[in-house]
Structure formats: structure tokens, C-alpha cells
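Need residues for this backbone.
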């Protein structure tokens, strides 16, 4: 995990929840820690990390993840045993 991934992890776990985190950075973090990102129909994505699944939509037209998506990513990471 490089320094950008560490910063993304810190941003995911920061309070209050940020709404300026780029969704692609979350995907890159998941891949860097051994997860998988599967493309689905349209903007749908299935993310698998250590047996835990997260199904979501990529944000559009913008690239920033919504607050609820950051919170769902935090829950996925917590369930997989990953903390900052």
C-alpha cells in the first residue's frame, strides 16, 4: 500500500464523513489491499474484499463518492478487519 492509498484509507475513516473523495481512489485502495472490483451493468460495481461484498453504483456525472458510499466503504473495510 503506497502513501496515496494510506491517505485514502484515512479519509474513509475520518469524521465527519467526507464528500470530496474520488470513487476511483476507493477502488484503487480496495485493489491494493487484495480486493476485487467487478464491472456490472451500466455504472454498477461489485467490490469483494476478504469474502465481504459491496454492491454500488459509480457516481455520475461527477467523480466524487457520495457520503453514504464512503460510509459503506468504511463498513466494508471494517468487516474485512482493515482499519487505519
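Answer:
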Amino acid at each position: 500500500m503506497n502513501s496515496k492509498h494510506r491517505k485514502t484509507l484515512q479519509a474513509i475513516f475520518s469524521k465527519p464523513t467526507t464528500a470530496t473523495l474520488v470513487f476511483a481512489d476507493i477502488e484503487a485502495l480496495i485493489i491494493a489491499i487484495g480486493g476485487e472490483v467487478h464491472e456490472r451493468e451500466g455504472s454498477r460495481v461489485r467490490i469483494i474484499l476478504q469474502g465481504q461484498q459491496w454492491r454500488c453504483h459509480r457516481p455520475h456525472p461527477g467523480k466524487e463518492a457520495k457520503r453514504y458510499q464512503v460510509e459503506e466503504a468504511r463498513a466494508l473495510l471494517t468487516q474485512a478487519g482493515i482499519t487505519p
